[in-house]
Design goal:
Largest sheet of chain B: none
Largest sheet of chain C: 6 strands, mixed
Helix content of chain C: 25-40%
Helix content of chain B: over 70%
Radius of gyration of chain B: 21 Å
Largest interface: A-C, 28 and 37 residues
Shape of chain C: globular
Number of strands of chain C: 9
Strand content of chain C: 25-35%
Shape of chain B: flat
Structural class of chain C: alpha/beta
Structural class of chain B: mainly alpha
Oligomer: heterotrimer
Mean pLDDT of chain C: 91
Number of helices of chain C: 7
Strand content of chain B: under 5%
CATH architecture of the largest domain in chain C: 3-Layer(aba) Sandwich
Chains: A alpha/beta, B mainly alpha, C alpha/beta
Low-confidence stretches of chain C: none
Number of strands of chain B: 0
Radius of gyration of chain C: 18 Å
Low-confidence stretches of chain B: none
CATH class of the largest domain in chain C: Alpha Beta
Number of helices of chain B: 7
Order of helices and strands of chain C: EEEHEEHHHEHEEEHH
Strand order of the largest sheet of chain C: 5-6-7-3-8-9
Chain lengths: 225, 213, 233
């Protein structure tokens, strides 16, 4: 469980929130605090007031994987192999261990053919998968995908999320503007002006949002037909 | 040259030879003509033109001030050619290997990481400037001297923002200081020949190559 | 008024782009996957890059503008206000429209991704050009902002508007539908007939309607809902 207690941080004001294990879609208007919330959960930011605990530990003592919105901004190295291996190098894993884990994660995400390529020459979808592999190679407790589907087409975005769900990190938090993708999560968290508007199953949350543009468009059609 | 250690050492030797004397510069130019890709090894036209202009300006000032500007120009040009060749042969990641080999997994890894990321950033600056040029064109503005100051400011802001993002990514990936890396180098017979020829040229220049001609 | 791509070809290694097309007045929607060449074609149409072969012919067109996919690519001003002025626009009007008045003195790159996108889109749409090309205008926007953009696009009269997008849900009403298929620009024709020719990459609500034998008046979700309600009612 991810517990947010008495949070006051920039525009975020959350008296108490417990996020269950599994996949959680974080939705809301731009500027509603989605990325700020994710940054608190990942330990990137420390709350100005209140606390965040991940399974009763500090976020900064947990392994966290992060995939950000823009494909290029995730990439530090010029070669795919160096990029994916980097978290292991930074934590002094030995070469044999690195080679083995890089091979396994690439195999799992079916991106082994990309290993010797330059990151600059990859397509947007390939960059997203490389970023995902880099995030997953440390077996994160929390995997955050911050609107990475915004600059991907439907097929590439679907592939990225399927890969993430298949690996099943304990906590998968993702921001998206695609409400159908959000509806596939275990839980949906809707933020409005820095506050929790709704949190629960997709059915419950979207029922509360049916008069807003956050209601999945195809669900509206299905009601009509 | 595949071995970055020998390549950098050869470049250092040739640069020193070129700097030391006109005959050393001639040797370096000959080495460049014989052993590099020539046009393929040249820096971009804009970069080359900028450097040549700078050399000519300094040489001219030198000459006007009573110094030997011509000798300066003749000695500096091969240096630029060697720098261009060194840059054209760069393979991503090799600087990290070289730095760890030289300085170890803590300091070497840090220095190598800074070098790799720095060179990447420099490579990106050309793209950023092209993007700004296009942005000016879209706004019906000319890409002239007046555009340079705001362009420079924006470039700085972009680089600062990018650095902050990279720092965040590094921290998220567990980077604190140093890292594990077993440096790997591929050294061919050609590498050794080219390195020793460069070293020979430097040593002969040091001893006064003219005496041997 | 006509924008013609005559034998336009461009290659980068294994990747090829081909376009033989003519765009008349109205709103054109070019669909296609990321990496299909939409952004490159947008740059060619706006005259910012030259094709390897062929030409872009402008008849009755004074000027063209382009909204780039990543709004940072537009930034030339040191502040938000300067940025609006760099487009030659009235700062009060644009800042009022986007709600960015309080941030006028901030550097544009300090704005959030959505704010910067809205700012640059507002500037592009406010500037007077016969041809307006929008490359992925919906990315980085939330659903309310996408709706507002669709409304703004619907209010455009005259000129040629070309929208390149992989957006699947919140779409504007358009006149002509195009698609990038294997690096080639293909015209599906005028909407609504073109909707039936849209391939497997069509938005889910369009596929939903076509699969049920409905032909919506346009590609917006409300058009599909209207067609569905007509059919069931």
């Amino acid at each position: 469980m991810i517990e947010l207690d008495g949070i006051r941080h920039h525009l975020l004001a959350i008296p108490w929130l417990a996020l269950d294990e599994g996949t959680i879609a974080v939705i809301g208007a731009n500027g509603s605090g989605k990325t700020t919330l994710l940054e608190l959960c990942a330990g990137i930011e420390v709350p100005q007031r209140g606390s965040v605990r991940i399974d009763e530990s500090e976020p900064r003592s947990c392994e966290v994987g992060w995939v950000c919105e823009f494909p290029d901004k995730n990439l530090l190295f010029e070669r795919v192999r160096d990029e994916i291996a980097s978290p292991l190098r930074f934590t002094f894993v030995d070469e044999a261990g690195i080679a083995d884990r890089v091979a396994r994660i690439c195999d799992r995400l079916a991106i082994s053919p990309l290993l010797e390529r330059r990151t600059a020459g990859l397509s947007g979808g390939e960059k997203a998968l490389v970023a995902l592999a880099t995030a997953l190679i440390v077996h994160p407790r929390v995997l955050v995908i911050d609107e990475a589907d915004s600059h991907l087409d439907a097929a590439a975005a679907q592939r990225m999320y399927e890969c993430a769900r298949e690996v099943r990190p304990p906590h998968l938090l993702f921001c998206t503007q695609d409400m159908h993708r959000a509806a596939e999560a275990d839980r949906v968290l809707f933020l409005a002006d820095g506050r929790v508007g709704a949190y629960g199953t997709p059915d419950d949350v979207f029922f509360a949002l049916q008069e807003t543009c956050f209601y999945p468009p195809l669900w509206r059609l299905a009601r009509c037909a | 040259m595949q071995d970055v250690r020998l390549r950098v050492a050869a470049a250092a030797a040739l640069s020193a030879a070129s700097y030391l004397s006109v005959v050393g510069a001639a040797f370096t130019l000959l080495w460049w003509l014989l052993f590099t890709g020539r046009e393929k090894a040249l820096p971009g036209r804009g970069v080359l033109a900028s450097f040549l202009l700078m050399i000519l300006a300094v040489a001219g000032a030198n000459q006007l001030g009573g110094g030997d500007g011509l000798s300066y120009a003749v000695r500096m040009v091969p240096l630029i050619l060697i720098a261009g060749w060194l840059s054209s042969e760069r393979v991503p990641g090799e600087l990290l290997h070289a730095a760890v080999w030289l300085f170890g997994p803590k300091t070497g890894f840090d220095l190598g990481l800074v070098a790799e990321m720095g060179l990447q950033a420099m490579g990106g600056i050309g793209d950023e400037l092209e993007r700004m040029r296009r942005a000016m064109r879209l706004k019906g503005r000319s890409w002239g001297v007046r555009a340079m100051v705001p362009a420079g400011l924006n470039l700085m802001q972009l680089q600062i923002a990018r650095s902050a993002e990279q720092a965040q990514i590094l921290a998220l990936r567990g980077y604190r200081r140093g890292g594990s890396l077993d440096p790997v180098f591929k050294t061919t017979a050609r590498d050794s020949i080219l390195f020793f020829s460069a070293l020979l040229g430097f040593l002969l220049t040091l001893c006064g190559l003219e005496k041997f001609l | 008024m006509r924008l013609t791509l005559a034998g336009v070809r461009l290659s980068r290694g294994d990747w090829h782009l081909a376009a033989d097309a003519a765009f008349g007045p109205g709103i054109h929607f070019v669909a296609g996957a990321v990496g299909s060449g939409k952004s490159t074609l947008a740059l060619i149409m706006a005259g910012l890059i030259a094709p390897d072969e062929g030409s872009v012919v402008r008849r009755g067109i004074g000027s063209a503008t382009l909204s780039l996919q990543f709004p940072e690519s537009h930034v030339t001003g040191a502040t938000v206000e300067e940025e609006v002025r760099s487009w030659g626009l009235d700062t009060a009007e644009v800042l009022g429209q986007t709600g960015l008045g309080p941030k006028a003195a901030m550097p544009p790159l300090a704005l959030s991704r959505g704010e910067l996108k809205r700012l640059e889109l507002a500037c592009v749409l406010a500037s007077k050009h016969e041809v307006c090309v929008l490359d992925e205008p919906f990315s980085s926007l939330d659903c309310a902002q996408k709706r507002a953009l669709c409304k703004r696009l619907g209010e455009r009269t005259g000129g040629i508007t070309i929208i390149f997008s992989h957006e699947q849900h919140i779409l504007p009403a358009v006149d002509v539908l195009w698609e990038m298929e294997g690096g080639r620009l293909v015209c599906h024709g005028r909407v609504p007939g073109a909707l039936e020719r849209w391939g497997a990459a069509a938005p889910p609500h369009i596929r939903w309607a076509i699969a049920r034998g409905m032909l919506p008046a346009n590609m917006r979700i409300e058009d599909v809902r209207e067609a569905a309600c007509r059919t069931s009612g």
